[in-house]
Design a protein that fits this description.
This protein is mostly helical and 82 residues long. The protein has one domain. The protein is built from 3 helices and 2 strands. Strands 1-2 form a two-stranded antiparallel sheet. Helix 2 runs antiparallel to helix 3.
């Protein structure tokens, strides 16, 4: 079973307040999430802890990643990267 740290759901306003390095670490953690519950080693009845993100194929992951990209693209040294 995976021992990865659970990612807390943050709203857009909370993301804006974070340091760029923290945002980049959050991006890395989001990208390391498992694809889905069915593709993981979790039991089928496993429940994700409320307020956290563990799988990419969820609306929470998709929203978190889109919000993160929006915040990062406006950061001075990040938005100009390809």
């Amino acid at each position: 079973m995976s021992k990865k740290k659970k990612i807390q759901i943050l709203d857009f306003e909370e993301l804006i307040k974070l340091h760029t390095g923290t945002l980049i670490a959050r991006r890395k953690a989001l990208l390391q999430c498992e694809e889905s519950l069915s593709a993981s080693d979790r039991l089928p009845d496993y429940q994700v802890e409320q307020g956290t993100i563990e799988f990419k194929q969820t609306k929470e992951w998709i929203n978190a990643y889109q919000d993160l990209k929006m915040v990062l693209k406006n950061r001075e040294h990040w938005g100009k990267r390809k």
